[in-house]
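Dear support,

I submitted the protein below through the web form. The confirmation email said the job was done, but the results page showed an empty box. After a refresh the structure appeared. I'm attaching both so you can tell me whether what I see now is the final result or a partial one.
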Amino acid sequence: MVGGIGGFRYSTDGGTTWTPSNTGLTTNTVNSFAVAGNTVLTSATEGVFRSTDNGTSWAEVHKGGGSSLALNGGSVYAAGGGVYRSQDSGASWSIIDTGAIGDSLMPLFVNGKYFFAGNVFTPYLVSLFADTTPSLYRSPDSGKTWMAITSNLPYYQLLVGVGDPVSYSYYDYIQSFAAIGKTLFAGIQGNYVYRSTDSGTTWSLASTGLADSNLCLATSGSLLFAGTASGGAFLSRDSGTSWTAINTGLTNTNIQALFVNGSDLFAGTKGGGIFHSADTGKLWTAFNNGLTDSSIQSFGVNGEYLFAGVGPGTYGGSVWRYPLSQVGVTSVQKAQPDQASLKVYTLGRYDPNVSIAFSIPGPERVSVAIYDLSGHLVTTLDDKIFSGGQHTLSWNTRTAGSGCYVVRMQAGGSVQVREVPVVR
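What the results page shows now:
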């Protein structure tokens, strides 16, 4: 399913053609997603939109806070002209901060007990030539009070050119956040990734080997990914100490969004649509499947669909969706039509279930088990003869502690493993 101005276009023939379905989504840019139970929320240029039917229809539920969304403790938070909170999955909103820390905040990020907000626009001009407004603010109380963070971070700067009309140049502002455990990362416009190990109090550069301007960050277990404006995708295995390019098959290297779901990595590009990797970026394949809008701004996921936000595109700001059950099937059938395959999908922060999809070319005894990183067996999900084709198992992580686990599938002589993070 794919969306245009006013809502979605959907497929009735497996994705070969698309037909209009304009129901409630009217925006220029889709900035981010949040999933709260059965509700999908998206922050857009005009505000926050809400869907309770997997994106088939949308309703605008908040006219402010259209920059970024975050989840914490069962509540949804929105930034933009202040910080807002919803305690009923986006149905109603209340103001927490009136915008004293900046007229526009993006992105908004939660790590542990702290909220972090990147300042995009300054509320007033301090100097004709430069404004050194802090680029980062931190809140210890879910957005009620904020403190500017300046230690070792570049200031947000606004340069004003001379001429008529006056030209503005914004740079050195935070575009993305990510975290591996308690280590926090900030992607800053101008070829920077900064790292903090003390909840954002102090920062240090973590950009060695990272080329070009950083746009977005994503994590998978201990792996850190970065997307850049023209250098493509990069991977760090040592928390940002060093980076290597991972661009094989990536024909568009202007990456605006990165997203990890289980063992799948998705890159949203400017002008090239979506690319997918099932092996942590070693090989990318185009994953557009009829998508006509090519400027991808954001990703989200619930238990059934992968969502992508566009803007501005052919249809203005739009959302499209793709069935999670078909993500691995499509790529595996193209790359390995005669081999066993294993895919793992997490279903959202508040859903303890992990979906484990596998396929085998013919009848075979298959064993699927969960291990911790020390190699200890946590549980065996199944061990029996399965028919050829696609199968799905579920692992309830409710009794598992936070950390990274390994899903191991043995089908005859074939063994495959996938990492899956569990976050509390």
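Response: this is the final, complete result; the empty box was a page-load delay. The longest strand covers residues 377-386.
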